[in-house]
Amino acid sequence: MNQNFQPKIKLNNGLLIPQLGLGVWKTSLNETQQMVKNAIENDYVLIDTAKQYGNEEAVGHGIQEGLAATDRQRNSIFLTTKIFNGDQGDYDKLRKAFNLQLKKLQTDYVDLLLLHWPVNNKYNESWRALQDIYADGQAKAIGVCNFNVERMTDLLAHAKVTPAVNQIEFNPLIHQPEIVDFCHKQNIQLEAWSPLGNGRLLTNDVITKIAKQHHKTPAQVILRWEVQQNFVILSKTTHPQRMRENANIFNFALTDSEIESINQLDQEKHAIWYDKFKWSGNPDGVDDYIAKPGAF
Fold this sequence. Notes:
Blueprint: E1 8-10, E2 16-18, E3 20-23, H1 29-41, E4 46-48, H2 56-70, E5 78-83, H3 91-105, E6 112-115, H4 123-135, E7 142-145, H5 149-158, E8 165-169, H6 177-185, E9 189-193, H7 205-214, H8 218-227, E10 232-235, H9 240-247, H10 256-263, H11 274-277
Parallel strand pairs: 3-4, 3-10, 4-5, 5-6, 6-7, 7-8, 8-9, 9-10
Antiparallel strand pairs: 1-2
Helix pairs in contact: 1-2, 2-3, 3-4, 7-8
Domain NADP-dependent oxidoreductase: 20-266
GO molecular function: oxidoreductase activity, acting on the CH-OH group of donors, NAD or NADP as acceptor
Pfam families: Aldo_ket_red
C-alpha cells in the first residue's frame, strides 16, 4: 500500500481522512511506540489514540521514529486523539489538559480531536471548548465518540460546529443502525472502533467461506465489509505482517449477497464493558480514571 493511493473520505469541513487507520488501545508503552513506527513504515497515515489509553507519549515517540525512518513530515500523518472524560465539563481545565496532550504527542496540532464519551451534563460545555480549539487551529477537525441519537441531537441543538466524526463500536455483530442513519443524514462521518469484534468472528463460517472465495483472510473480509459501508476503520495489531494484510483490502469487493449474509450476523451486543461507561464515562463512575497501558 502506498499512502498516495490510500482511499480518503472528505469530512464535512473539507478535510480528507484516510479510510484505514491504526488504533492503539490496550497496548503497552513499548508496544505502542514500536507499532506506531512500524505502521508509518508500512504506509499507514491515520493514527488514533486517546489520553484515556495512557500511551499518548509513546505514540508521540513512535511518530517521530516513523517520520525519521521514512523521511516524511508531520503533515503526512493524520493524528487523532480524544478528550479524557475527567477533563470534560470545565472549559479551562479541558483546554489546559489538551495542551499537555499535545506536548506528549510532540505536535502543536492534531488532525482530529474527539470527545471520548458523551459524559452526562458535561459534553455540551466540553464541545464549546473543542469549537474554540478548532477555531484556534489546534485541531483541523473535531468530533465525538459513542454518541447515540439522543445525545447527538442534544449536542447539535447547542453546537455552532457540527461534529465531523462520530466514532462508534461497529462490526458484523453490532451495527447500531439508528445512529448510523442519523449521522448519514447529518453528514457526520462514522468511524468504527473494534472493527473485528475482538476477533470473535475470525472463525465464523459465513466469514471464512467468503474469505476462501476471495482468497483473503477473514479479517480482510470483515474490514472490506466496513469499507463498503463508507466507514473509516481503525484496526489494531502489533505485527507488521498483519498491518500489511489489514491494508490489503482495496483490491477486491464483496457482492451484494455477501454483504447481506454478513449483515445477518448482527446481534446488537456492545462490548462486555460498554454499559459500565454509560453515561458517566468510566467503569467506576470516577472522573479521573485513566488506563494503565495494556490494562484493559
